[in-house]
Amino acid sequence: MKMELKISTGIPGFDKTIDSLRLGDNVVWQVDNIRAYKDIITPYVDKALQDDRKVIYVRFGKHEPLIEREGVKQYNVDAKKGFESFATEIHRLIENEGFKTFYVFDSLTDLLSSWCSDLMIGNFFKVCCPYLYELDTVAYFAINRNVHTYSTIARIRETTQVLLDLYEVEGKHYIHPLKVWQRYSPTMFFPHLIEGDRVKSITASSEASALFSNINRVEERMDYWDVIFSRAREDLQKDQATQEKTKRFLMTLLIGEKSRMFDLCDQYFTLQDIFTIASREVGTGFIGGKSVGMLLARNILKEDKKDRFTKYMEAHDSFYIGSDIFYTYIVQNGWWKLRVKQKTKEGYYKYARELREKILNGEFPSNIKEQFVQVLEYFGQSPIIIRSSSLLEDNFGNAFAGKYDSVFCVNQGTPEERYKALEDAIRTVYASTMNEDALEYRMNRGLFEKDEQMAILIQRVSGDHYEDNFFPHIAGVGNSSNLYVWDKSVDMDAGMIRLVFGLGTRAVDRTVDDYAKIVTLDQPTRKPLMHMDDLKKFSQHGVDVLSMSRNEWTSVKLDEAIANVWDVERNLFASIDTETAFRLKDLGYKNMPTPYILDFKNVLKNSSFPEVMREILAEIARVYDYPVDVEFTANFRDKDNFKINIVQCRPLQTKGLGKSVDIPEISPDEACFIQTEGNFMGGNVRIPIDYCIYVDMDGYLNLSEQDKYSVARTIGKITRDLKNERVFLVGPGRWGTSTPSLGVPVHFSEIQHVAAICEVSSQAKGFMPELSYGSHFFQDIVESDIFYAAIFDGEEGVRFEPSYVTDQKNILTNWVETPTVSDEVIHVSKVTGMELLSDIVKQKLLCR
Length: 848
Hints:
- The chain is of the alpha+beta class.
- It has 4 domains: 6-213, 3-Layer(aba) Sandwich (Rossmann fold); 314-460, ATP-grasp fold, A domain (Dna Ligase, domain 1); 464-651, ATP-grasp fold, B domain (D-amino Acid Aminotransferase, Chain A, domain 1, 2-Layer Sandwich); 674-847, no CATH class.
- The strands form 8 sheets. The protein has a 9-stranded mixed sheet. A 6-stranded mixed sheet has the order 29-34-33-32-31-36. It has a 5-stranded mixed sheet with strand order 12-13-16-14-15.
- A hairpin with a 2-residue loop joins β8 and β9 (172-180).
- The chain is elongated, with a radius of gyration of 33 Å.
- It is an enzyme of class 2 (transferase).
- Residues 287-666 form the Pyruvate phosphate dikinase AMP/ATP-binding domain.
């Protein structure tokens, strides 16, 4: 229970009318102008100072200052920094000022000029007011009458303790109490004329009707956000300069602050484009990086001067859940205080799990639920995907690739079941802001204190029904620059794609023992350097699909999926596995699905698809002036009749590509470990090395086969133990080979955490096995983002000096007390100051 200490408004007659204020009261005044609010503040502040109260003025409005007098402490808070920064700063100043402080806040209506959203003003009041109440403060707020929506006023009314209308009619002030919590008198809720210290209740009907007939009351108002866009539509009929100015202003509301992405959108979006986006937004706020990247890529292709892409582009009809809904969800459920605690260094990890669990189980406001229903009714029973689209995502410098969740909604069942699945998917994406990977990513990049509002992109899933399953013919990821050049004849600038049959999840997620097709777009039919026997083994065997009967994302066998494809020739994507077919026949199997090898041979050789993809990637990268990473799907009617859907586009964030690396020139007498030209994959890198594991070629070749396997297991043990360190692995021949005489037979799982791998061959020593370029091991390296290099010891331009490492202390015995092989074979060094540098443009590599 609050203390029943009565607090004066500074107007004795009005104190009597409302039985005074109480500690904990938030007092909201609805006013016609800021001058009237200032008039009512003055006696309150004078009385508080007279009673030796601590008075704080929180200044953020554009209107004239409300208080300019000694004894009042003023805080200036910048609302332009955004809701989260603003609300957090005010929360912390309230915390610092402590109990029984008296406050005056500027008019909340002025926040519209910074946030353009009534929704967010309601959110701010709902997070600020309870904390002020908790600390036994008394706080004055104002809102301008006839500006805000009824729902905003309703949220303020339900949260505040005291709500008062303040009118100025013919030079006189009238106060009309609308809510006075836990107080009542027979005349309390009549209007009252204020005459100095005296107050007269307007109880006569004739006086009351005369008063209210002079007061302007209007019908329900739109959210200020909608008012802005509605008024801006008029500019579509005006000159181009006006349209461009209006477009840029609206872009600050939907896309964000000035940035490289903003400038690109400014170049490729029209004012009409911005209105189209706004018309498909649920709520208010930014649409987020993933939505912006997808829309920008599509517009770049649509605006191509040669009109090369229009006939190949699948239409899109996405919706966007505005970033303000994320905050509204947190505020509505009463978690703001927990979020503020989580945003501190001390609470960053400590409170993340609790907040994540709460986010997974919250309730959405009823008006937002209605908009969700409308989106679901639009899509009917078409499968949709709910994708994260945070403010920082898919931008230059911070991709957040794979850090946040995306959720497929197969969208089957009753309307109630489909709606529940949609809400659960949105909650899952929101909760993924508290995922460990996302938290680490933000912390490592110094972003943990930045606003990371989560918008959401709702996309129709591309594809069709094939019996019980729904999927596109092909999907994948395209890079405009080929980071994994394994042959000097590969044109890095032609780009590459990772191609799968079915949903693209297998192209973006690592799948154990299954492989996407790596395609170099300069020579799409280029065969990887592997034995023919390996082609089937190291291809795609499972297909990700949406099961309509099970209402879930799942995987099926390739033969099952492709057998039901009815709308295009299957040999576009796969070749019949004749060897397996004959074997099944010899074994007496009947009515089995025809076995296939997924090689995409006809798509890559006989269709225009590879060339179209090459041109798409090149055009987007040209406009970005930066390499790009694009997720896509494609559906075919025949080899040259297909539609491509660009579902995501972002600047390519792989091991420093796009950021040049300065490789110093060193003289022959300067020591180094490795110096070479070409024969590496992984882009421009500067990798500090913590540990180097070197396997000596001579020593290894002299071991028995059993001891060679022992070397592999020992290295696996070491790299697992050092999985959080940057390890450089250097050894003879093919890492991961099944033939110990050709290299160290480690399992990929044993070395999947290393930062870089180097394979060494030597013609002088008669050890020149085919290295891992293009092999299945190469596929693993590509998928796991491991830097790869090959050293041809003894060739011109190659320096390889193992003594640079072996002269340092061998700490192998930290893992193997009594080595079964000589410690001259495996040398483990904890190195200091060693760096691996590569420049993919100049094709130079240096490690020292």
